Every structure is written in C-alpha cells, then in structure tokens.
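Chapter summary example.
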Amino acid sequence: MIIRILNKAQYLKLFFFFAMGIVVGYELNAESIQIEKNINPFKLYPKDISFEVKRNEEIIGFHKVTFELITDNRISVAAEMKINVFFLGFPIYKYSYFSNAQWQDGYLQNLAAKQNDDGDKSEVIIRRNKKRLNITGPNGDTSGAIELLPSNHWNSRILGMNKVIDTIKGKVADITIQDKGVERIKVKGGIVLATKYVFGGDVDANVWYHRSGRWVKLQFRAEDNSIIELLCQECGVSEFIMAGN
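The structure predicted for these 245 residues follows.
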C-alpha cells in the first residue's frame, strides 16, 4: 500500500495506492523473511491488521485489513482507509478507500476497489480468467500475469516482485526493492525488529517487515515534503515485542 500526498492550491490532495508478482524466498542482509507461496493470513494476523496514519507525527486517519475464510482454500480480504486533514480546526481534505478481494490457493481471483479523493470518485475491477488478470480502471482496460498481487502489503510475497497492480489507476506498475537491513520499529506495546525495504520505480516508499513475514510499518515523503507514516496498532507481532522505546 502506498499513499501519495500532493500540495495543490494550499490543499492536501491524497491518493491511495495499494499494489503487490512472484517468488517464494528472498535473501536478506541480517534476517530471512519467512515467505510462502500460499501465505496464511489467519496465522500471521489472527486479529486482522490496524494502522494509524500520521502526517508529521499528527494522526490523520486509519488503515485496516480484515480477513474472512470462505472455504478451505478461498479467502476474502477487505482493505479500508479513511483520512481527514484539518487546518486551524477546519477540514480541508477527506479521502476514503475500500477494496474487497477474493483469493484462492495463494492467487488473486477478483478485486473491486473504490476511492473517493476529496469528491473525485473512481473504481478499479480485477477479474481472473484462465491465463491473465483482466484489469479495468479509470483509464480503460489492461491485463497482467496471474501471479501479480494487489498491494495490501500484508502479503510479503511483494518482496520478490518487480511488477505490481496499482489499484487506484488500474494499471501494472514497475517497482524495484532494496533491502536496507534490520531496524528497531515502534509498534503498539513496544519495539520489534524489522527489515527495512526501499521501494523505487513507479513506487517511492519505505516498508518494514518482521522476519515472520508480517508487515509492521510504511513511510514516505509527500510532495509537500511532509512525512506520512502507517504505524502498527495491530499486526500480529505481540509475541515478538520487546520493551523499550
């Protein structure tokens, strides 16, 4: 998931990008991330996922991901984000995003995403056929390989990929990923060790994963030079938390 904030006519314009292509393992500098082809989100995130969204240390919203078991090998994943930006106590910007995806045996089957960017509404629809993922977005139709993932970053398979699905624009985006080593990351209740990854290409962000494959943080610099962070409130790492700041 990636967010971009733009400064336009003294207002903050925010766009929400959730995206994620193949490989089962990835070699890290310090710790090996546990990545499986068919990730079990109920094991990784038994209480779902919840993040605070902050801009320059001020809370402006939330991001949540919830999981539902449909059958033994089919799951539903819902992602939601809401943002409210205020200036001198007055609301100057609102943003909302919601997507619902169906997965089977580790592969995306379909996804429907809607966003409301301060009144500008758009939708993206993804459907799988036998060989491709068909993608319909604001700029028309395209397609991608069936291994591609939409990036609610809960799925750590993104770490082995060079292409992702942009579920805002409805297109396939190119990415690069660099491992920057393990850092101490603050989560609700304490500190966890997590590996920092720097995303480049069509995506510009820093993302942290615990060695278990759990997503614990996201950060990027907006075009108005503010720092946007998604900070873990619930991301399945309670057993790994260390005391301290």
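To summarize the output: Helices lie at 41-44.
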